[in-house]
Amino acid sequence: MIERNNPVAKIRIALIQMASTTSPETNLEKAVGFIHEAARMGAQVVCLQELFRSQYFCQTENASLFDLAEPIPGPTTKELGAVARQHGIALVASLFERRDAGVYHNTAVVFDTDGSILGTYRKMHIPDDPLYHEKFYFTPGDQGFRPINTRFGKIGVLVCWDQWFPEAARLMALQGAKILFYPTAIGWHPAEKIRYGGVHQEAWKTIQRAHAIANGIYVAAVNRVGHEVLVGEGIEFWGNSFVADPMGVILKEASTKQEEILVVDCDLAYLEEVRRNWPFFRDRRIDSYEPISRRWID
Questions:
Q1: Closest by CA position to 213, among listed 288, 292, 275
Q2: N or C: where does the chain have the smaller number of CB atoms within 10 Å of the terminal CB?
Q3: Of 50, 97, 228, 260, which is the active-site residue?
Q4: Is the peptide bond prior to 73 cis by the omega test (within 30 degrees of 0)?
């Protein structure tokens, strides 16, 4: 067994990009099958996409959809924990958490190699856009930005809209995270795809590659695929799950339309090399950053 305070020099990670159906049971069964396959491919840390158990229900405001939520720990964490224990892997799973009556979160759970829950991250930045009505469903996270120390190394987990905020990535890196995982559900509004699709997709990749560079860290984004229609024309999720190294180079990228398991080796020795030559943490002017904690500076 690998000691938690003696992480491995290389971490093999797997991102599971899948299409979700209207059946939570089917989606869980499919995800478990992919986890088994990723483990057979040698993955040590496996990450599922955002809210994998259902289609992306935030397209509409419907109070009956709160029934999709479940407690943590609960039935899904029990099943996923068993899979993590079976293969001796760390596992990141994004769930719709019912914390109590009227209090729901978009929560990522990190499982240890023995199947226990190492920690959770509740999504901090909650969007409210056309077909992304997350403020109706999710209470903002209250745990802050805290990495989780797996047996393979310290990782940071952030969720979807968190991708666009450099402060979140920085805080994870400053506390020792070596890989940032971003479970995601992002796609095109079909009516806007021709005009804005390429720009939006490239912006999504660029901002996360910038987090990798600015923090000398690996970034792993796992998105869903498929055209899901709960209202109007729905959302066409664009996949393109990817892993970027500490220089922002995309090491591997999934397709736009297919279900895939993306397996990538992350070399922590390379992270050390990059930070020695690009010493952003050394040169930060922490004595001058106080205004960033304000909403706006007039």
A1: 275
A2: C
A3: 50
A4: yes
